[in-house]
User: Which sequence fits this backbone?
């Protein structure tokens, strides 16, 4: 039974990782550049990208939660795990840096979802009424934070690879 639970945990963990980091990769490397190239109207481009992000956000958030739950199962089953806040081997150090990058990602997600996205929605309403707004700056800030999320996601994968090799 233990092997079955661990196998399911690995599967869900990998699926959540692919969903979250793969989604960020597709968004930043393909969707944004193609939207910029083919949607010449800035309002259409913004609505397309924001609509896509609204659809992706629930899956990304679910992935974050699943990663924590499945990661705890996997950590407890790993023979390199020596206890909470014990960093006596290379595996635990790699896992520490992996988890620090993950916490950084969660922090950036919080900033985007609870700070930038509501500000973009307000600025969009102001823009629709031809009132002064900082929509362009907010969209650039969100794009930069999303690129930061992708960078941290790649760091998470790097330290996962290091821990796996140990």
Assistant:
């Amino acid at each position: 039974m233990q092997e079955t639970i661990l196998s399911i945990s690995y599967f869900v963990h990998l699926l959540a990782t692919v969903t979250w980091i793969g989604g960020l990769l597709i968004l930043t490397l393909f969707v944004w550049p193609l939207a910029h190239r083919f949607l010449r109207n800035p309002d259409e481009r913004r609505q397309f990208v924001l609509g896509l992000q609204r659809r992706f956000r629930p899956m990304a958030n679910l992935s974050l939660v699943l990663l924590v739950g499945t990661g705890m199962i996997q950590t407890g089953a790993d023979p390199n795990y020596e206890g909470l806040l014990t960093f006596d081997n290379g595996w635990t150090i790699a896992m520490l840096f992996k988890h620090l990058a993950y916490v950084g990602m969660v922090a950036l997600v919080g900033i985007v979802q609870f700070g930038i996205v509501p500000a973009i929605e307000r600025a969009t309403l102001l823009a629709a009424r031809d009132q002064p707004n900082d929509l362009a700056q907010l969209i650039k800030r969100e794009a930069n934070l999303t690129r930061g999320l992708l960078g941290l996601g790649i760091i998470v994968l790097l330290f996962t690879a290091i821990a796996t090799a140990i």
About this structure: The chain has a mean pLDDT of 90. The longest helix spans residues 90-128.
